[in-house]
Design goal:
The chain is an all-alpha fold. It has two helices and no strands. The protein has one domain. The two termini are about 30 Å apart.
Length: about 70
Amino acid sequence: CFHWLFQDIFNSVIAALFLLVVCLFAIIVKSNTGTLAGGVLGLILLVLCVVDAVLLYKKISLGRPRGRNAPAK
């Protein structure tokens, strides 16, 4: 029942959730400055995963024609 075009979006959302959990643990524990820096950089990656999911959602064309013969916007 899951449309195959949404696999990339699903992958980005799962990666973002995983990064959220790992980065929050790294920031909360912050045993040294490297762990804190890794948590902050991971949060930046989290934002990039969310942006990727949004851009993929906008790019998917369910009702529009596909291929090279599709009219330009």
